[in-house]
Request: fold
Amino acid sequence: MSVAALDTHPVPACVHGLHALLDTVSTAAWDGLDPTEVRRLLAEIGRAEARLSAHKMAAARVLEKARKAAANGDGPRPGTGTSTGATISFDFGGDRGGADALVNTAQRIEEQTTLIENALASGVISTKQADLISRALAKLPDDVTPEQRERCEETLLKDAQKLTLKDLRRRAARITDAYKKTTDEVDADEDEILRRREEEARKKTSFSMWDNNDGTVTGRFTLPEAQGAMLKTALDALAAPHQKVGTVNAATGQMDEVGFGQTYPQRLGHAFATLVEHLPADRLPTNGGVSAVVTVNLDLDTLMGGIKAAGLSDGTRISAGEARRLACSAQIVPMVLGGTSLPLDLGSANRFFNRASRRAMEKRDGGCTAPDNCDRDARWTEAHHLNPYAISKTTDIRDGALLCPFHHHRAHEQGWVGRINPDDGHVEWKLPGSDTWQRNTRWRP
Ligand SMILES: [Zn+2]
Ligand SMILES: [Zn+2]
Reply:
């Protein structure tokens, strides 16, 4: 292998030229530009990045080849890293995962594609698009001919211009339609690709969670796409932005409480907490005799409105109000302790309002019964016991009222007193500091 003299080689001259050009303009220079122009230039920079990444890949391939040659005792070893990725990340950036991906993609593009390298080097597609297309081509069936392969590549390259990455990935799964005759054949190929993807996804699936020791836990998970979509859909529904929660301040006319958190991630977080509380814990399998159901242990006094904190069966301490709310409606079993700390009542699934009474309450209440103006309709409410079940032993709807999770928290935290109006049978509340019965006039004037 001959190595060209540095002073005449075009690559170092180009790289030095790039740096020299960038030195002439500071990032503050963007401030004076028209936004339309900024937008155009930003896209141009994206193209320049794609072109540079083509060069990075070409460079990575040279290093990888040199490393392999050195391993065969042929030539000096480039760098001291354990791999080309390690060497590249050591030289700049420290991103080992990114450098390994660069080496892999560079090799895959060289082995699997004929047009991608040029498309990337001329700024027609981005690195991610190039990566995705090369992966799709690598998954083509073994019996594909070179002509068919090229047709697939051309099609994907064209489709990349108009599709999002996600849609391009879907398109790639059916790419054999570029040359296969029947839909059945294409279906079979797509099915095979999806089957392998799902198998890979199952291998990568994981969940971990750790205690922040400040009353919160933080977690991290990887789920297969399908379950991820289910989770996202459920959370989005529970966190729907139009489901605004609040009370109108009489003086200002503004919403005083805007539910639990206002940003999208905060709303999703509370939606996740709601989802966890609504798991059908009674029906989950037991783990070698260990129950999947958490019990909340609270004093009779706490249940009746006292302030003594309570505990969950795993030792977690919770406030009296939270304990009352959980004992009221969530899929959690309350263990009510008398004065001698002996269980008085172990609640069971029976303490929940059944479907029929739940439907009757939905019809009666219309939505969250909190006064005033809460706009959560019946689908997003929890059934609250006006008297704790452990005392009343009834799931009669005359003992129930619908509240959204936010107001359900409030009701237990602040000790709202509720009743069914004896005249028209609708739910009314006395809020702390108030002596009048109020209702949610949105649903029941
Ligand atoms: Zn309740
Ligand atoms: Zn509400």
Summary: The two ends are 88 Å apart (CA to CA). The pocket of zinc ion (ligand 1) is lined by residues 325, 328-329, 384-385, 408, 412 (CB under 6 Å). Residues 39-203 form one domain. The chain has four domains: 39-203, 223-277, 281-349, 353-430.
